[in-house]
Amino acid sequence: MCALSFITEEAFERHVKATIKKYGEKLASFDLKRFNKNLIDPVKLIFDKTVYRSSWDEIISNEIFRQRDKSNNNDIGYFHQGIFQYIENCEVPPNGESGGWDVIYRDPAGIDIPGAGRVRTVYVEMKNKYNTMNSASAGKTFIKMQNQLLRDDDCACFLVEAIAQRSQNIKWETTVDKQKVGHKLIRRVSMDQFYALVTGETDAFYQMCMALPQVIEKVVDEMEDIEVPHDTVMDELHEWSQHLDTPSENLAIAMAVYMLGFHGYHGFD
Length: 269
Fold this sequence. Notes:
Layout: H1 9-23, H2 32-35, H3 42-51, H4 56-82, E1 90-91, E2 103-113, E3 117-129, H5 135-151, E4 155-163, E5 169-176, E6 179-190, H6 191-199, H7 204-222, H8 233-241, H9 249-262
Parallel strand pairs: 3-4, 4-6
Antiparallel strand pairs: 1-2, 2-3, 5-6
Helix pairs in contact: 1-4, 1-7, 3-9, 8-9
């Protein structure tokens, strides 16, 4: 089905299944208690509903989706990183081991680094987006890479971005202690370029993306323990609002939402 030369169909499906399983409890339905577990901001919900001309059903559904999506980002990071364990010459070390690198790529025949010759090993720090790193995090990562180059003079270090601004394999320049720094063996690399490097196929990442929807659908259909969530938040808000003395249903729901965050505040009791 997947017809990818750099990973078997069985391994690809196994990795997709493992990623879906990591969604875990996030697939569970939301009731009002779970919805407000970390205390929502009622004022923001009121603004969003009114400004975007949304219904209460829409705005509550969007908030539930946002809460699920926030947790799911880590699971997709697992997908991007973990798939390389099935690709030749790549190692995905257990968390915290082998220097804490996300992926290590080795090739005894040598790996060409643009403008920097050949090395036998590439150490990878993988991020979903570069702009998720603040200056302190970027500086710490760069220093980690510098230290690796000092310990191993036959390697390069890559900051691989799943979502980069463009396809690239460039020298990474950042700021450490207010000084601009860079090194030709410390590089910013987009995910498509890294796939191309380790597989030898220029469009390998594109191939994976084209195969992915069908594989996800197949795996989901085969997983009997996956259920479509049935969220009850709006039902519970409606029920709660019926006990409130307000002139309209819209205001009653608004008051019920306010009570989620402000139930102990003066006037709301």
